[in-house]
Amino acid sequence: MANSHYKAGRHFLQIPGPTNVPDRVLRAMDYPTIDHRGPDFAKIGAACLAGIKTIFKTDSHVVIYPASGTGAWEAALVNLLNEGDKVLMVETGHFASLWHKMASRLGLETEFLETDWRRGADPSAVEDRLRADTEQQIKAVCVVHNETSTGSTTRIDDIRKAIDAAGHDAYFMVDTISSLASIDYRHDEWGVDVTVSGSQKGLMLPPGLSFNALSERAIDASKTAGMRRSYWDWQEQIAANASGAFPYTPATNLLYGLDEAITMLHEEGLDNVFARHDRHAEATRRAVQQWGLEVLCQEPINYSSSLTAVLLPDGHNADDFRATVLDNFDMSLGNGLSKLAGKVFRIGHLGDFNDLMLMGTLSGVEMGLKLADIPHQTGGVATAMAYLSDTADS
Ligand SMILES: *Cc1c(COP(=O)(O)O)cnc(C)c1O
Question: pTM of the full predicted structure?
Fold first, then answer.
């Protein structure tokens, strides 16, 4: 890189995705790219397609695209919905707003349930809206599980219950891009028709893969429904996947990494992975409270285990603070997005992450608060440390 100089030690990539890629995943990818129509590749393709189902907790099919998460958003919409169909979305924050904008651009008739960006989607608001739709004109309900711009997680099981309580038949689509493999998620049990996800957050991979986990109902309906599409077509994927192949060149080396990441998640155990994220999130919130700063999410039931968004006091710019931390401690923190720009910074504590990495992260934040002259109380790091040692597996 031009104009850069060597910085000793490891950079702290504490944005809420992309996350730190573990050495085991990097090693797994550091292997020659092979013939994606040959027998060796078919074994890897089949292993990834089978393994990823265990992460989504589905017995149905998961489509894997060489694309960012945004591509998988589009795939979900165009395979199942027709132009002019009505979709109900919930404005939990910046990412829900982007998905909403995409749906409008694709010619869907969108309805956006507004929120204040400080909580998750409200199941009773969804239920009320669906009950009022007596002619069942709403074809899909779209919700972001973990809103990465705000650090608020929606209870997907409660949204499922709300759809059922309203007796509504709409498809249920969920974005788990920053929650899969970090926060408990159950595609089949929660009756989700399309779960969208991406590689670069909880799955510990570089950016470049994204996913649609499907329901049987969605697979059947897509045979006759949906918009004009080609690259995103589920049926072509499913047909090729039967022999461990893909309809076009897959991201071969990312699939080597995916296979390894799935193995690692099962070695740790998914429940342990979720508990680790919950514990790190709790330690982080305790530090924030000790600093006398405010966590953006106001509803404890919606606290995110992937990231924590922290509000700075009025008159202090969060981007200046982040620049101070980057310059002095070589740590990247997440920025405030759209209406939160300059007001919040986000601490990513997801992916391949442990207690001492969290302590390093919080130390960088606390030292940065001092250097940037942000009014705060010291002792956040000590508070988090006490919590981690009290709750350590001994
Ligand atoms: C990161 C993210 C996206 C966007 O994914 P890209 O890979 O950048 O296209 C969408 N939704 C959520 C919730 C995210 O966290």
Answer: 0.98
Q: At what angle do helices 355-371 and 380-390 cross, to 10 degrees?
A: 170
The whole-angstrom separation of Cα 28 and Cα 60 is: 27
Contact 269, 313 (CB under 8 A): no
Distance in angstroms (rounded) separating the CA atoms of residues 226 and 237: 15
166 Cβ neighbours under 8 A, 6+ residues apart = 126, 127, 130, 131, 133
Ligand 1 site: residues with CB under 6 angstroms?
17, 68-70, 95, 144, 148, 175, 177-178, 198, 207
User: From ligand 1's centre to the CA of 200, what distance in Å?
Assistant: 9
Ligand 1 pocket: which of 178, 197, 209 to mutate (most atoms <8 Å of CB)? 178
Check: CB of residue 127 under 8 Å from CB of residue 159.
no
Q: SS3 of 162, please?
A: helix
E strand or H helix at 328: helix 318-329
Determine the residue type at 202: G
CA dist 116 and 279 (Å) reads: 26
Q: Give φ, ψ of 143 to 5 degrees.
A: -135, 140
Residue 325, SS3 per DSSP = helix
Q: Ligand 1 center to residue 151 CA distance, Å?
A: 13
- Using most ligand atoms within 8 A of CB, pick from 177, 195, 304 the residue to mutate for ligand 1: 177
Q: Is 14 helix (H, G, I), strand (E, B) or coil?
A: strand
Provide the H-helix boundaries in 5-122.
23-29, 39-56, 69-80, 94-105
Q: Which domains does the chain have, with CATH numbers?
A: 23-266 (3.40.640.10), 270-391 (3.90.1150.10)
Per-residue pLDDT of the chain (394 residues; tens, 9 = 90+): 556 688 999 999 999 999 999 999 999 999 999 999 999 999 999 999 999 999 999 999 999 999 999 999 999 999 999 999 999 999 999 999 999 999 999 999 999 999 999 999 999 999 999 999 999 999 999 999 999 999 999 999 999 999 999 999 999 999 999 999 999 999 999 999 999 999 999 999 999 999 999 999 999 999 999 999 999 999 999 999 999 999 999 999 999 999 999 999 999 999 999 999 999 999 999 999 999 999 999 999 999 999 999 999 999 999 999 999 999 999 999 999 999 999 999 999 999 999 999 999 999 999 999 999 999 999 999 999 999 999 998 7
